[in-house]
From TrEMBL:
Coiled coil: none annotated. PANTHER family: NAD-CAPPED RNA HYDROLASE NUDT12 (PTHR42904:SF6), NUDIX HYDROLASE, NUDC SUBFAMILY (PTHR42904). This is NUDIX hydrolase. It catalyses: a 5'-end NAD(+)-phospho-ribonucleoside in mRNA + H2O = a 5'-end phospho-adenosine-phospho-ribonucleoside in mRNA + beta-nicotinamide D-ribonucleotide + 2 H(+). Keywords: Hydrolase, Magnesium, Metal-binding. One of its GO terms (cellular component) is cytosol. GO terms for molecular function: metal ion binding; NADH pyrophosphatase activity. Belongs to the Nudix hydrolase family. NudC subfamily. InterPro entries: NAD-cap_RNA_hydrolase_NudC, NUDIX_hydrolase-like_dom_sf, NUDIX_hydrolase_CS, NUDIX_hydrolase_dom. It holds the Pfam family NUDIX. Residues 37-159 form the Nudix hydrolase domain. It comes from Candidatus Contendobacter odensis Run_B_J11.
């Protein structure tokens, strides 16, 4: 299935073509040869810890009961650790000093590669326009979920337990 419909280089329609054994959108215009690779998008995620609790947030577009980690896209010329500190500041109004890398997690359903960090924070939370609500979950009550950022929560909790 073609997601991109027109070539960003020459404007001609893209056609599905076999490229290295996989069908990909490709421009067959003479002299162009553009291929839409559809590479995963890097996303950063934060387990924001404050006063023995993890801050989970609900995006305004999500259902009432759905909460998750603070996440955002890695921007051009930005390191992953700087990106997640920026996202925590933008979304929660917190100026955290450090981001500790947990791991990377493929999120195939969204074509993303999640780079997860533990971000200890202090201060007063001020939600930005993207978020509808937060909830504070005591670390001992936090339970990982199966997809997206859930495996990062699982690994972070396991590392905490083994270090204790």
């Amino acid at each position: 299935m073609i997601k991109a419909h027109f070539c960003p280089q020459c404007g001609n329609p893209l056609q599905s073509a076999d490229v290295d054994g996989q069908f990909r959108p490709r421009c067959d215009a003479a002299g162009c040869g553009y291929i839409h690779w559809d590479n995963p998008v890097p996303v950063v995620a934060a387990i924001v810890e404050m006063d023995g609790a993890v801050i989970l947030a609900r995006n305004r577009a999500w259902p009432e009961h759905m909460f998750g980690l603070i996440t955002g896209f890695l921007e051009k010329r930005e390191t992953p650790d700087a990106a997640i500190l920026r996202e925590v500041q933008e979304e929660l109004g917190l100026n955290a000093a450090a981001a500790h890398f947990i791991g990377y997690y493929p999120f195939f359903e969204m074509n993303q590669l999640i780079l997860a960090f533990h971000v200890p924070a202090r201060g007063e939370i001020v939600l930005n326009e993207e978020l509808a609500a937060i909830k504070r979950v005591p670390v001992e009550r936090l339970k990982p979920w199966t997809i997206g950022t859930g495996p990062a929560v699982r690994d972070w909790l396991a590392n905490r337990a083994s270090a204790a």
